[in-house]
Amino acid sequence: MLENLKQQFTELYGQQNKNAFFAPGRVNLIGEHIDYNGGLVMPCAITMGTYLLTAPNKDGVFRFKSTNFEETLEIAVQDSYEKTGKEWYNYPLGVIHHFLAQGKSVGGLDLLYHGNLPIGSSLSSSASIEVVTAFAMNEIYHSGFSKLDLVKLSKKVENEFIGVNSGIMDQFAVAFGEKNKALKLNCDTLDYEAVECNLGDHFLAIINTNKPRKLTESKYNERVGECQTALKALQAELDIQNLCDIHTDTFEKHQSLIADATVLKRAKHVVEENDRVLEAAEALDQNRLADFGRLMFASHDSLQHLYEVSGIELDTIVEFCKGFDGVTGARMTGAGFGGCAIALVKKASFDDFSKKITDYYTSKIGYAPSVYSSEIGTGVVEL
Question: pTM score, two decimals?
């Protein structure tokens, strides 16, 4: 892979690359739609991601090229940049803009990207591009940012330059991921703990519905608003700043404060899902994969029935997984409304699983899913 990319770089730019970097994609193992409620999430890095090869040039320009997209950009080094259109190169351009905004010096650079993450699949291809670019710029220009600084800068790119109002989990997992470990991350404080996640004789299967998820077209903002309504109702009797400041038992004692039945369902999911993350961390740490799998199924059921962010495609995948002997647990991952599901699948059963779920899904939905096997990988690195 890397040798082939190096050859392509030389052919495209007429010089050899000087540096090479990799940032993974991520999945969230459990803890969905609670990041904006001050809760705990448990993402991990995966072994698919984004490669970036670079070399300085003497022309005073940035050249952006990708093996995945036809669009290219050549733009002079200047004091600031603005987003233009919806092309992929806005993500690295935004990173450079925010480096400049913080007074960092940069110079002409040739960049070649290659990603093996499906676009629009909830595996954080955008965060992967942002973090690999930020990490590369930091190394090449000796900018002195810490890894957490780079995470915050990348989130700022997503929010302010690209214009997507997402949380920090994606960039955090892409940067801080550790091999065979999940990150129990407090989205409110950014405190985290690396939890042992040895999958043993299991693969982490990623099943792409091939129904692209577009946050701007989803009901994401509606869910955020419903959670804020629930929080305000509970604050009449409880001194809390976030829904995830309470556990299930406290919620049950005060749930009558929430008059709207739909808002009540949303809040119930958030509080119970946060408790599931705590249980899941303990199960993984004690190598109780069967218990972890049970929590994955419970998480999906809650997202399907209480939070209502799933859909027939994701539900079809999880329905199949519940009846397949080689699966220990499965759930949708990411914001929902399409994208991907994940499953813990025994390695010995994976080929059979891949064929049978493809047939089952195709018969129900009318087109095939994409099925990948992954292990839990490391965060951003220089190669």
Answer: 0.89
Q: Is 120 annotated as a binding residue?
A: yes
- Which residues share a beta bridge with 196? 181
How many residues comprise the chain? Answer: 383
260 marked as part of a ligand binding site: no
Separation of alpha carbons 125 and 74, rounded Å: 22
CATH topology of domain 202-374: Alpha-Beta Plaits (3.30.70)
35 annotated binding-site participant: yes
Give Cα 332 to chain centroid, integer Å: 12
Phi then psi dihedrals of residue 214, to 5 deg: -120, 110
Domain boundaries, the chain: 2-197, 202-374
The answer on whether 299 is annotated among ligand-binding residues is: no
For range 148-168, the mean pLDDT:
90
Q: Would residue 170 show up in a list of annotated catalytic residues for this protein? A: yes
Give residue-wise pLDDT tens across range 164-212.
877 788 999 999 999 999 999 998 889 999 999 988 899 999 999 998 6
pLDDT for the residue 216:
44
- Look at residue 84 and tell me whether its pLDDT is greater than 90: no
DSSP-derived pairing of the beta strands 73-76 and 61-66:
antiparallel
On whether the CB atoms of residues 81 and 62 are closer than 8 A, the answer is no
Strands 40-56 and 181-186: antiparallel
CATH 3.40.630.30 is right for the domain spanning 2-197: no
Give the Cα separation of 314 and 38 in Å (integer): 26
Per DSSP bridges, beta strands 109-115 and 40-56 are: antiparallel
- Which residue among 170, 260, 301, 359 is the active-site one? 170
Angstrom distance (rounded) from CA 10 to CA 72: 16
Q: In terms of DSSP H, where are the helices of the chain? A: 2-13, 90-101, 125-140, 147-156, 169-176, 220-234, 248-254, 261-285, 289-305, 312-322, 350-365
256 is in an annotated binding site: no
Choice between 251 and 224, residue whose per-residue pLDDT is larger: 251
